[in-house]
Amino acid sequence: MIGFALVAALTAGAALATAPVQVKRLPGVVLPTALADPDLRTLQEGAEAGRIDPGKLPMVELATLDLRKGFVPGVASVEFRIPSNVSPEDNEVTFDRLAGDFSSHAKVLFQAPAAGTYFFDFAVKGHAGPDGAQRTLVLENIGFPAQTRTLKVGDQHAMYVFKAAAPGPMLMVLESKNTSWTFRSLTISQLK
After folding, report:
1. What are phi and psi of 8, to 5 degrees?
2. CATH of domain 59-191
3. What b-and-e string marks burial along 58-91, b requiring 16 or more CB atoms within 10 Å of the CB?
4. Which of 51, 96, 98, 112 has its CA 20 to 30 A from that of 173?
5. Does the reported pTM lie above 0.90?
6. What does the domain layout of the chain look like in residue ranges?
7. What residues contact 134, with CB distance under 8 A and at least 6 apart?
8. Mean pLDDT for each consecutive 10-residue tract of the chain (192 residues)?
9. What is the Cα–Cα distance from 121 to 119, expressed in whole angstroms?
10. DSSP string covering the chain
């Protein structure tokens, strides 16, 4: 596990939360321990602020998914729901903001091989919105609090951090309800 000094150095002194959280275990479902683990909380805050450099963390890459390779057997898969454009040539999928109850999104199914901390690094492109309002990209993982990242115009990485309490499936939805965006790839890594 990462030592506190390394985490603090990587996240530039982000505040720590140490209050324990009660978590009930359901069969076959990996539940969150995000608020109970100060190191995880610090990593999440660092990822949200864009202060995490994955290349400086001791991680093992488990899978990289994109339009051309959307499935790694026994590890992860990505599916696209109601995209506005699919470009095999550019290896990207674009999503537009849709009105009403329609959800245009990328759905990720990940099989955590063991208890541990996992990084989900999405390579995305933000598009300019007509109203100039703040644009966000939200990753909802069933059983975990949603994590929101600001989506700038242009190419960027949106990093999300989750801790699996045990081996098992995680089902995630990445979407923006207030702007158009493009999915390029997802790299899933486990912290050593």
Report:
1. -65, -40
2. 2.60.120.260
3. ebeebbebbbeebebeeebbbebeebeeeeeeee
4. 51
5. no
6. 59-191
7. 150, 178
8. 32 33 36 46 74 78 95 96 93 82 86 94 86 81 87 90 92 89 95 86
9. 6
10. ---HHHHHHHTTS-------------TT-PPP-GGG-HHHHHHHHHHHTT---GGGS-EEEEEEEESS--EETTTEEEEEES-SEEETTTTEEEE---STT---EEEEEEEESSSEEEEEEEEEEE---SS----EEEEEETTS--EEEE--SEEEEEEEEEEESSSEEEEEEEE-SSS-EEEEEEEEEEE-
Pair of tokens at residue 86? 């699919």
Is residue 15 classed exposed, middle or buried when 0-12, 13-18 and 19+ CB atoms within 10 A define those classes? Answer: exposed
